[in-house]
UniProtKB/TrEMBL annotation:
Pathway: Amino-acid biosynthesis; L-histidine biosynthesis; L-histidine from 5-phospho-alpha-D-ribose 1-diphosphate: step 7/9. This is Histidinol-phosphate aminotransferase. GO terms for molecular function: histidinol-phosphate transaminase activity. Keywords: Amino-acid biosynthesis, Aminotransferase, Histidine biosynthesis, Pyridoxal phosphate, Transferase.
């Protein structure tokens, strides 16, 4: 083995100019007892479900010399029936996490000379995937309570004519859900596709409709979902979308052949068969979320209303100091969102008790 020259770095590579100086996306993955930083479901699969997954993968393994079903037909049918709303497999597309779904959307509808638009603070992967696909990014600010002012949105759309509009609802990192009538107005005004990123849809409060209800009337609307959050399956990497079948046809032009492995398809189908167990904690997590919001307010923190499995709270003069003081007590939360705010993922009752105790100590309240 040869020894590579030590002085050779990323900067010496013929990297694209627009990637120079950028850092890779990702929250710290630290091994501490209380991990509340990436919006995962805190409940691991039961041993019984782990066994069912292992058995299904063993059966699939007998055919691993062959490529998987390129169109993931059974999985898409299973996801469609999970979503309901009269959707079929033809309306659904799946990939390795919803991030890959979003990337395929930008590959098909964005690209050089085109722009995507988002309303920030929001999910930072939207601009990152846009840039990665050579798509311009237009950021429109949300208002002081993290809502999207529809008139501002419509004016920005008229000015920039974006090929892709991202609406995240419930929004990450603020937890804010959008009004369904506002989503419809944006969908009517936008000249390109409108992506409603519903990664946290299952956690929304009662009475908050999903944008799935708008699909029948809006053929350029796309609703993206994931099995990473409510479904407690982040490690399996399964995301999906629902849209008009023509949108699915467009994505087939850019997807890599056999992008979704046979193992992934089997794991996702088995998970769908056990959705009662996997989604079983969602109501408890919603209740724990509402309790966290109330507790934080009682203790004088500013808190954004949340329809998701996390809570954004503040405001801190030095949020890094608070984040570090939490970590020193073995509680990992996320330094993300507008300056002065921090985000905590809703965990088990025990984890939330640890969070509350650590926060009181970290802030001297
Ligand atoms: C977590 C998250 C995703 C999910 O990503 P996966 O690739 O499916 O794990 C998508 N959108 C938002 C807004 C998220 O917070």
């Amino acid at each position: 083995m040869s020894v590579e020259p030590v002085s050779f770095t990323l900067n010496d590579l013929p990297l694209r100019d627009d990637l120079r100086g950028r850092s890779p996306y990702g929250a710290p993955q630290l091994d501490v007892p209380v991990v509340l930083n990436t919006n995962e479901n805190p409940h691991a699969p039961s041993p019984r479900l782990a066994r069912a997954l292992a058995d299904a993968v063993a059966a699939t393994a007998l055919g691993l010399n062959r490529y998987p079903d390129r169109d993931a037909v059974r999985l898409r049918e299973g996801l469609a029936s999970y979503l309901g709303h009269g959707l079929t497999g033809a309306h659904v597309w799946a990939a390795n996490g919803s991030n890959e779904v979003l990337q395929q959307i930008l590959q098909a509808f964005g690209g050089p000379g085109r722009t995507a638009m988002g309303f920030e603070p929001s999910y930072s992967m939207h601009p990152i995937i846009s840039r990665g696909t050579g798509t311009g990014w237009v950021s429109v600010p949300r208002d002081a309570d993290f809502r999207i002012d529809t008139d501002t949105a419509l004016a920005a759309i008229a000015e920039h004519r974006p090929s892709v509009v991202f609406l995240t609802s419930p929004n990450n990192p603020t937890g804010t859900a959008l009004d369904i009538a506002d989503i419809a107005r944006v969908a009517e005004a936008a000249p390109g596709v409108v992506v409603v990123d519903e990664a946290y849809a299952e956690f929304r409060r009662t009475g908050t409709p999903s944008a799935l209800t708008l699909l029948a009337d809006h053929p350029r609307l796309i609703v993206s979902r994931t099995m990473s959050k409510a479904f407690a399956l982040a490690g399996a990497r399964v995301g999906y979308l629902a849209a008009h079948p023509a949108v699915v046809d467009a994505l087939q032009l850019v997807r890599l052949p056999y992008h979704l492995s046979a193992v992934t398809q089997t794991v996702a189908l088995t998970a769908l068969d056990h959705s009662d167990e996997l989604l079983g904690a969602v109501d408890d997590l919603r209740a724990e979320r509402d309790a966290a919001v109330a507790w934080l307010r009682e203790h004088g923190f500013a808190v954004a209303d949340s329809d998701a499995n996390f809570v954004l709270f503040g405001e801190f003069e030095d949020r890094t100091e608070v984040w570090q003081a939490m970590l020193d007590q073995q509680v990992l939360i996320r330094e993300v969102g507008p300056p002065g705010w921090l985000r905590v993922t809703v965990g088990t009752p025990e984890e939330m008790a640890a969070f509350r105790a650590a926060l009181l100590r970290a802030t001297g309240r």
